[in-house]
Structure formats: structure tokens, C-alpha cells
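Final report, closing paragraph on structural work. Over the funding period we assembled a curated collection of sequence-structure pairs, and we close with a single example.
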Amino acid sequence: GATATGPAPARASFGAKLDKGQDGAVVLEVFPASNAERGGVRAGDTIVKVNGKACPEPKVFLDVLAATAPG
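Its predicted structure, as stored:
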């Protein structure tokens, strides 16, 4: 699986452990006090799209997130 922690302050951070699922990036774990938790993301959720772009796997999601300004 992949972990989205957003190490650079100028990057958007997510705060969850992800794995590839059948339809997208599956959330395995949401870290406490993370953007994911604040946004209502829960373990077991499947991320299929972000900013209008399909996310068939965690790497695509993380790439789109990395290119997104925080906020």
C-alpha cells in the first residue's frame, strides 16, 4: 500500500494509508487529526476520482494530490 502523509508543507497532505482496490484507491487507515479525518474519510472508503481525474490506484491519487495546492 501507499501512505499519503504530505511531507512538504507546500504540498497538500491527505493522512491515510491506501491500497489498490478493484475500483480505485482503498483507504486502509485514516491517521488522527489528518486532512482525511477532518474531511470525513473513513477506513474502507474507495477513492475513485479527485479534482475530476479518475484515480484507479493510489499512485494516481497521490500524484494528483501532490500537484494540488493545499486548501
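The longest strand covers residues 25-30. The chain has a mean pLDDT of 86. We thank the funder for supporting this effort.
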